[in-house]
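lol forgot to send this yesterday, sorry. struct tokens for the thing we talked abt
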């Protein structure tokens, strides 16, 4: 599945996992990805990020302008694209 994710300033996709690999490219703005057990990293326009199968993480926009990413998820068939994690 491939799509464009738009994150308004200060917004978050919440704490979640994917049952597969997520690969993203930041089109504009900046996106912070915080993977459980690792320090967060901010990605700028033109940079790519990857999250691995079932690794809990949060994607958020720490900036003051809208962030846009194009993301491809290679996930198992028949499961939700995103599963919230408490």
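and heres what i got for the seq, position by position
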């Amino acid at each position: 599945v491939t799509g464009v994710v738009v994150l308004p300033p200060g917004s978050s996709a919440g704490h979640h996992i994917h049952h597969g690999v997520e690969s993203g490219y930041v089109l504009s703005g900046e996106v912070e990805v915080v993977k459980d057990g690792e320090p967060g990293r901010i990605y700028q326009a033109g940079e790519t990020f990857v999250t691995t199968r079932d690794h809990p993480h949060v994607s958020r926009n720490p900036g003051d302008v809208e962030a846009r990413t194009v993301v491809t998820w290679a996930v198992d068939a028949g499961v939700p694209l995103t599963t919230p994690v408490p």
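The chain has a mean pLDDT of 97. anyway ping me if u want another try
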